[in-house]
Amino acid sequence: MIALPRASIRRAGVLFCLSIALLLADYGNASARTQTLGAAVNGVVSAFRSRDSGRLNRFVHPKRGVVVIYRTGVFNEFKAVSKIDFDHPVPEYFSYPEIKSRAPLRYARLPVYNCERNAWSKTGLFCDLKHRDTLLSATAMNLRDYRGDVITRQTIARFRSLEAQSIRVVLVEADGRDLVFYLTRIGGRWYLTILDRVTSDCSA
């Protein structure tokens, strides 16, 4: 058997320990990000449940605001607002949902809405870390291409960038009421950036 120099053994031991430390640090950072996301999801849901605009707007970025997607006639529309006001919803004729659920957050595939059955595929609070949605950019492109709205390429590119960084969250209660929103990590915090009010609206 060939004996290795003690210095080589020490160097190998140090490198091994560093590798393990870096691996654990990466795991810990990923875990912390997930836990922070979970806290933001529950915070947004809780603020909707208590209909507390002040608490909810703590999750709205002060400079970026939130984009609300809703439907008028055959077209989905979007409107950027600086905050959410339960007394003045967007659109004004469609009150924000009254949420009662305290369902635990599950990291799993999102529920899907079926317009023929007028129902979601499952109930509960869901977040899929792998899912990326294009509802906002698709809405903008449809308005530009089929209704003639003036929406610049830069705006659509900005929407696509936002979507690529955002996590879609779906809450479905037993009676069918729902809350669908997106959270985006900005400067180390998760913010409410998009509110989807169209997925379960099959009125067109």
Total DSSP helices: 4
Q: Unreliable stretches, pLDDT < 50, 5 or more residues? A: 12-29
What global shape is seen?
A: globular
Structural class: alpha+beta
Give the termini separation. Answer: 80 Å
Question: How many β-strand runs?
Answer: 9
Strand content: 15-25%
Record the SSE blueprint.
Blueprint: H1 6-50, H2 53-56, E1 66-72, E2 75-81, E3 105-107, E4 113-114, E5 119-120, E6 124-127, H3 135-147, H4 153-164, E7 166-172, E8 178-186, E9 189-196
Parallel strand pairs: 1-9, 3-6
Antiparallel strand pairs: 1-2, 4-5, 6-7, 7-8, 8-9
Helix pairs in contact: 3-4
Structure description:
By secondary structure, this protein is α+β, with helices and mostly antiparallel strands. It has one domain (30-196). The chain has helices spanning 6-50, 53-56, 135-147, 153-164, and strands at 66-72, 75-81, 105-107, 113-114, 119-120, 124-127, 166-172, 178-186, 189-196. It has a 7-stranded mixed beta sheet. It has a two-stranded antiparallel ribbon with strand order 4-5. α3 (135-147) runs antiparallel to α4 (153-164). It is globular, with a radius of gyration of 22 Å.
Give a quick precis of the structure.
By secondary structure, this protein is α+β, with helices and mostly antiparallel strands.
Provide the descriptors you would attach to this structure in a database record.
4 helices, alpha+beta, 204 residues, two-stranded antiparallel sheet
